[in-house]
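Onboarding guide, step 5: your first structure request.
Type a short instruction followed by the sequence, for example:

Predict the 3D structure of this protein.
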Amino acid sequence: MTQVHDPKRNLTSSPRSTGKPSSSNTAGPSSSAKSPVTSAAPPSEPAVAPVLEEPVEQGYWPVLRNQNFMLMWLGQVFSQMADKVYLVLIIALITSQFKAPDQSVSVWVSSIMIAFTIPAVLFGSIAGVYVDRWSKKWVLVLTNGLRGALVLSLPPLLWLCGQQPGWFQIPLGFWVLLGVTFLVSTLTQFFAPAEQSTIPLIVEKPHLLSANSLYTLTMLLALIGGFAAGEPLLEIVGGYFSQLGWDAGRELVVGGSYAIAGLLLLFLRTGETAANRSTGDSHVWADIKEGLQYLNEHRRVRTALIQLVILFSVFAALAVLVVRLAEVLPGIKTSQFGFLLATGGIGMAISATILGSIGQNLPRHRLSFYGSMGMAVMLGGLAFSTQSLWISLGLMVGLGAAAALIGVPMQTTIQEKTPEEMRGKVFGLQNNASNIALSLPLALAGLAETFFGLQTVLLGLAGIVVIGGLLSWYIADTSSSVSDDANPSRLSSP
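The system replies with structure tokens like these:
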């Protein structure tokens, strides 16, 4: 008997019953003697019209009307802004309280950046393991609340410590800044995989690409807006509270943003139950090993993670190389290298917006391949256009646009194809690998440019991106789940 599966109702339909025995029950020697013809061929079954799937609704609207996603997105806005303005706050505190007038701020800031980076390298994978064991909602709430409390503790701590001498003749107050920064960064390592693991819990799979596009767009806008508007915002609020006789206005902006994010996420409903979490019986390192084994056995997820690591590495290297690019380009000062990075961010924002509107049913691996080829072309163009500012700016916009075609689909692929109980481990490993990928190029790109030249290094980055794109295409074409990738709305549970 023909059966048709209706994915909407998750029911198995059959020919409508007429109250009479079916042909399979009337044919054969066991038929009733009253039947005049028992040997005749059974009547053909009525044709059943195929059940057609409704088209997946495109664009951002299905995501924006999702109340839980909106709560999480608003929490992300406040949390991301706080992350970026936090660094601006720390630099302002260093400048006003610790740096001598004739002293460079670079040494102080470098120490802060090291304190911010070490937890990412040390705890990224471990944090992901515990995210799988704990309630993701409460990880999101508590990490924001604790980060807010740490920032708000800075004024009394600095007042108590002041310029008292500490270890290695460094003021004790600066050690307080390093310690608070280390703790804030450590909490961020738990927040990041919990946030990525929660998105698939509250967003249906056909709309994951739109959700990740909005997530990426918000992150970019927070990056640009936080660094651009952070200093004037802190000055305005700090000046206002100073007139009221309170000098903690700047800390209130950052700590309050974290606290608002935590309060918003308190109302989040993820639908997560204890059955969805890892049991926690095994050792932490065993769970990390399990995550690595999962990546080893699932090529699509592993390839998506490799693509993201390559993407982060290239942009970390570019953050160093654009300084040299600004130095050799006519019509721009070396100190204005930020304009080059900003144009890349504009390209990513435009591409992510378009991708979230029309890209739900486009094959993930093809988007990544086209993005890789686009990045390679733009990097190659930059290598040969160091005499034209406007061409370089256009190429940076194209570079950012192509990068979004890699970042958004690959992040969505990891979310779609990773089981719920494994997401924390996988995203923890991704967070760990991404931070290493961000750190190494920062140290090596300048050295490579010194020895080989800007043009050679840019062409080398283009070659690396091409290899990543070809790898993604090959893995997708040889994977048995390529049909799922081509139509993500048909995906079953990961």
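Each response can be followed by summary notes, for example: The beta strands are 4-6, 11-13.
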